[in-house]
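Purpose: get a first structural picture of the assembly so the mutagenesis plan has something to point at.
Setup: two entries, given in the order below. No constraints added.
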Amino acid sequence: MTRERLLAELRHQPVIVLALVVAAFLIVSSLLVPLMSDLDASAPRLGKRLEGPSWAGGEGGLLGTDSLGRDLLLRIMYGMRTSFLVGALAALIGAVFGTLVGLVSGYFGGIGDAVLMRLTDIELAFPGILLVMVLVTATGGGVGTLIVVLGSISWMLYARVVRGAVLTLRTTDLITATTGLGASTWRIIFVHVLPNVAAAAMSLLAVTFASLMLAEASLSFIGFGVKPPRISLGAILSSGRDYLSTSWWVSTFSGLFLLMGVLSTNLIGSWLHRITDPLTIRSGS
Amino acid sequence: MSRYLIGRVAQLAVVIGGALVATFLALHLVADPAVLGLPIGTPIESIEAFNEVNGFNDDFFTQLGRFFWNALHGDLGESLWLGGSALGHVFSRLPATLMLTVPAVLGGGLLGVILGSVSARRPDSWLSSGLNVVSYSVISIAEFWLAIMLVLVFAVNIVWLPTAGYDPKPQVMILPILVLALRPFAQNFQLTQATMSAEYGKPYILAARAKGLSEGQVARRHVLRNVSVPVVTLLLFELSRVFVGTAIIIEIVFAWPGIGRLAASALFRGDIFLVQAIVMVAATATAMLNLLADLFYFAIDPRTRHLVKGPRR
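Result (structure tokens, whole complex):
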């Protein structure tokens, strides 16, 4: 898709433009706000415990402070960084591994294909979150582990989609021609097949990213995610539960930022899927 | 059919066995059961005794073999934390979880199907675009955040409903069921709308109308039958996901004593026998729901029957 067509397409999609703006705003502010602030996101300030937002008559800065007097805006921005980091890296691990499985499975077929596809079936049928909780407990947690564990439960969809695309592509003249020219198997797979099925895998990336951001926050919320001093939106939200009746801002704002991040990514993702999916393009909708 | 069924049941056993092996590996090899299960500062003699009594000193394959042998006989050990049969504790908590998840998924899912088919007939109406916005927001929302916001509004500010606790009464169950129902609703809405609009563009609709069927008959006899395959699959998938996923978090928010909250407590306390029992029940439930979805295909869609009857592919 050319840049002109992309821009023309966007002109009719005000919601997507808004989602792009929100996502850009969140990424930029989560990078910049911690750099610009002179406050410490982790050190307690007991004199400023649970101060309300400044615009609501409190003295806690723009979004108020948490139960240890720490600036909520700053903590939320660090939490957004964790969300983006975990979501993006885990989605990438899932995408790369799933695409490899799909390429090998679809191109070679046979027994290997049957085994790999049964494995995806089995992993799809696994009780996901529960096993993640078990693995996080066993390994003692940490961001790296969480990324790997979340990545390892999100490759199946890529494997299926890529395999399907490869199966279709294998019957085309492209493969017959390159085989006839004497290209090696791996050259065919990575130079000729991969670029043609990459769009199918890429369109899933944003949606996986969004759901993994949610998964990280959920796990941190129940205490199976990232550990302090690393800050997570889910953990901030959970810490606000005990003060809900007096200090509503802690849980409310951390959840609101999470919602903005996930919703904008989901909207962008489903739009990308729509405009890159050959089926919907052909039917003209 | 019987050959197919044997294959599917074997696959079911592989899924359950795989989940159990993964759990066993994680809890016994990656972590040390004594470190997980005993408080910090426990004297060496007590740790030794703990490992001896529970057989953690035997070599790994002896332990794994004994675990599966006992599991086949329905014995998953005794809970370290609560005492008594681990499996018994899981089954005693099961009704509480089902009480929330089944009405939530069925209610939310069916409402999604109904509104999805209404909106597929009128794709450009305000109802359709409004529901689309709602469904995307619902899919993007963190359920636990919404649950806390609902508690804040309905139980803290206007004291209509209790905040949390176990009491199988409508006013206690309404908030958790409502939150759990949202995602099944949105997913089913989007799927029904998408598949229905696709079905209405197919030539068989023209044929059905041409032979004089009313719109209602076309919808009931032809469209619904085709749409029901993906929709029922999604419903069963949602049920398994809510059962072992969302319900864990919602049970914690509402202090509801189901197996999800039991799982979190068992993991925090390092009660590995209880954790293994929960994983086994959860994996069995998930695998059974998947099998049920497959069997439903054959009942509803004649095109898939050659897979089970004809010569082996």
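Residues 309-313 of chain B have pLDDT under 50 and may be disordered.
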